[in-house]
Task: inverse folding
């Protein structure tokens, strides 16, 4: 998966949400015969998707790196990392760097499979373009 696609996934998700809202609010845009693939709700969050996208391109990333690259608050990022970890999409390990605690995240095989399915589902939304 290319890095440029990974960087735009959160924006694509936003656009898909707009399309979904149009299709459910107006029959003009709704096609009953075409079943849209279900998007993983855990990955459909902009911040969680950003974290997963970053972890796809690196072996591991620490909390500070993720915070800087997602521009998230520490509290929000911590909650989202916990959700991804609970789902088994990422693994976290904690250690001490000097006198400071350090959280390191890496994507699990289950997380890679979930991202692959998510991207395939996204592609199905654009099949007619």
Result:
């Amino acid at each position: 998966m290319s890095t440029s696609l990974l960087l735009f996934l959160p924006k694509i998700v936003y656009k898909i949400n707009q399309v979904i809202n149009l299709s459910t609010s107006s029959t003009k845009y709704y096609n009953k015969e075409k079943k849209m693939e279900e998007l993983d709700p855990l990955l459909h969050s902009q911040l969680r998707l950003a974290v997963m996208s970053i972890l796809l391109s690196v072996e591991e990333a620490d909390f500070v790196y993720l915070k800087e690259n997602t521009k998230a608050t520490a509290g929000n990022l911590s909650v989202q990392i916990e959700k991804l970890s609970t789902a088994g999409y990422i693994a976290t390990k904690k250690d001490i760097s000097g006198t400071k605690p350090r959280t390191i995240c890496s994507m699990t095989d289950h997380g890679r499979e979930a991202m692959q399915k998510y991207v395939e589902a996204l592609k199905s939304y654009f099949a007619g373009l």
Remarks:
- Residues 3-125 form a domain with the Arc Repressor Mutant, subunit A fold (CATH 1.10.10.10).
- The longest helix spans residues 3-25.
- The chain has one domain: 3-125.
